[in-house]
Amino acid sequence: MNLDKLKTTDGLDLAGKRVLVRADLNVPAKNGVVTDATRLERVVPGLKALAARGARVIVLSHFGRPKDGPDRENSLAAVAEALGKIAGTPVALASDCVGEAAQKAVAALPNGAILVLENTRFHKGEEKNDPEFSKALAALGDLFVNDAFSAAHRAHASTEGVTHLLPSYAGPLMMEEISALRTALEQPKRPVAAVVGGAKVSTKIPVLTNLSAKVDKLIIGGGMANTFLLAGGVEIGKSLAEPDLVETAREIMHAAKARSCEIVLPQDVVVAGRFEAGAPSRTVPTIDVPKDEMVLDVGPKTVAHYVDVLSRCETLLWNGPLGAFEISPFGEGTFALARAAAERTKAGTLTSVAGGGDTVAALNAAGVTDDFTYVSSAGGAFLEWLEGRELPGVTALTR
Fold first, then answer.
1. Catalytic residue among 200, 250, 339, 389
2. Catalytically annotated residue among 39, 56, 204, 217
3. 283: exposed, middle or buried (Cβ count in 10 Å: 0-12, 13-18, 19+)
4. Domain 188-386 CATH superfamily
5. Which of 32, 99, 357, 367 does the annotation list as catalytic?
6. Is 144 left (phi over 0), alpha (psi -120 to 50) or beta?
7. Matching CATH topology for 3-173 and 188-386?
């Protein structure tokens, strides 16, 4: 995947052109109301910039997981309305993304206006990357812009299929995401630290394997750390872990050592007898976890050690929390490290890139999202990039 081959629409005359834009409008919504508009806020500047150049902007997106064709619950109607409010201009919605309804809506679209086509997943051809469905989508545009990095790990008709049929370009949000990840992984200022947390090692084996070959310090947190502690012969009481992956954890540790990557694990932890808000908790050394209690966060000595590790690094990549941050007081370790990373970023001494749903939620809870160098809005695509995999939606733009 030669990322230097990515092209943008800069310099093109777009006046009157039908520009088919793949965006990710798959945002949280409840009872027809968008509850988190972050993704919309990020994609709007790119859409408005195209419209300002006289393009007729036609937006494609999936929404939810409809099973049997169109249904009201998975309609993009409320999302299109929210998009219009953020953009400060009316945004029309076509009742379908292909066929007569879509064709009429596109034909009626004036220069400089934005139209959202209904949920691409209302058609089975979308996820099957069906060539005929791709043709129907491509017929609506003169050129294609993919501005949905968060959907680029899927080889669907609206992310990969249409690129075979139209001149195809990367949008500004796509370029932002790729640039941030390249900065952290391919052209980083060293030393580089990665924080990888979350509940299970099983979901992040490829991430850990790939990062151990690319970073200098690998800080492991969350339930994942418990499995690594087990691999080192440490008893962890009733803590969440995956005993069947202890050998895998050992293999990752050995491989990291061979590559001069230091794996950093907790020195002290916060334990409780049960996982619920307000449960009595205390801090103990990692080697002294009681048999009838569970690890739910890292302790202050661990945070101080992690902060010290970061103080000697110039680049940070973060995916996953250090503890059960959703329930008080088990987010304090994650929040403290996030604040320390944010302070160094603001001081200009650290490049910090973070991504993943839980990570974004944790950074939001710590109030530091805006202080990181870049926080990705992607989930699966961000993880697959960390695994070192090629993303079909990105590869398609480099052909």
1. 200
2. 39
3. middle
4. Phosphoglycerate kinase, N-terminal domain (3.40.50.1260)
5. 357
6. beta
7. yes
Residue 380: active-site member: yes
- What number of other Cβ atoms are within 10 A of residue 383's Cβ? 19
pLDDT tens sequence across 283-336: 999 999 999 999 999 999 999 999 999 999 999 999 999 999 999 999 999 999
Give CA separation, 92 vs 113, 115, 119, 205, in Å: 9, 5, 14, 44
Q: For residues 291 and 293, what is the distance between their CA atoms, to the nearest angstrom? A: 6
Separation CA 297–CA 332 (nearest Å): 8
CATH topology of domain 3-173: Rossmann fold (3.40.50)
Instruction: For the chain, give every domain's residue range.
Output: 3-173, 188-386
Beta strands 268-272; 281-285: pairing state:
antiparallel
pLDDT digits 0-9 by tens, 320-376: 999 999 999 999 999 999 999 999 999 999 999 999 888 999 999 999 999 999 999
Furthest C-alpha separation in the chain: 70
Q: List the structure tokens of 362.
A: 């944790």
Check if 7 is active-site: no
Separation CA 116–CA 334 (nearest Å): 38
SS3 state at 273? coil
Catalytic residue among 54, 64, 273, 380: 380
